[in-house]
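User: Look at the shape:
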Amino acid sequence: MTTLKNKANGDNFLKIIQPPKLCRLKHEKSGNNPMAGWVKSLPALLIVFVLSFLICPISCPASKAVNASVWEPLIEHLIEDGEDEATIRSIFTRREVQFNPRVMPRKLSHKESKLDYSKFLRPERLSRASAFLDTHKELLIRIEGEYGVPKEIKVAILLVETDLGRYLGPDRAFNILASMAAATDIDRVKLWLPPELLKSTEREHVEKKLKDKSQWAYEELRALLIYS
């Protein structure tokens, strides 16, 4: 055991136990058994072993291979539609671009009709929207001139989708759209679907809804690539 002392008052303030070193087995302490040093190191080895499995899903080649196989049909589709192959492949090999199989199931079970959109007409929200429009008026007018979208429409969209920038969501927009666009087959996401959507009576409806949402996401993804 090694004891570190405070130079000012000599009091012990930290005690650490030195781990046994694998590369320096001291036979005088381990007797005639050369494995004694390794036995002492067993807890450390176990920790390293467990950590290697915890880290593997994030960085190991197998995880990258699975990610690549999911993206490949989408990548080929984008290239067929005129996107530059080198650029697209470069984007999809980025570390932060990850397929999320839970995105599409959330969209399939989402009930838009149950949302309370009247909250966006409350005086406090409208007041903030008006102030936002005034603050960014010059930029909004410039965007309107370039893309033809009225500034009031843009602010209304920002109010509903992000609460004027207050809420951007936990996920990257690119990953959400790409994950939905890649989820063209119900078997790819069925593990995350609620049981009621997997009933035989619902399957045809769910498959059609999935394809429609996947196509919508693909078009939105292309727009994001074009205008970003």
